[in-house]
Design a protein that fits this description.
mainly alpha, single chain, rod-shaped, 3 helices
């Protein structure tokens, strides 16, 4: 009886620790994605303003920059420089 209670307590502690690790990993992943998206929007705005590229803030540009961050902004800027519209 006492051994069963002890084992149940150990399983509960392990489950709580696993939940903490999963939440921590997801939090750091989401934080990284948010930072990358914000940096992408800042880069998009600065390059668009400084070089007067005239890239519109339309739905495809916003979605690509939000999902891919800096690389997405770089691709949109490169496409505009090459004369390809999205």
């Amino acid at each position: 009886m006492a051994l069963g209670v002890l084992l149940s307590g150990i399983w509960v502690i392990l489950a709580v620790l696993l939940a903490i690790v999963i939440v921590w990993k997801l939090g750091t992943l989401l934080f990284g994605l948010i930072v990358n998206a914000v940096l992408g929007f800042i880069t998009f705005w600065i390059i668009n303003t400084v070089f007067s590229l005239g890239i519109a803030w339309d739905i495809p540009a916003i979605v690509i920059t939000a999902i891919f961050g800096l690389p997405g902004a770089a691709v949109i800027i490169l496409l505009k420089v090459l004369g390809i519209s999205i």
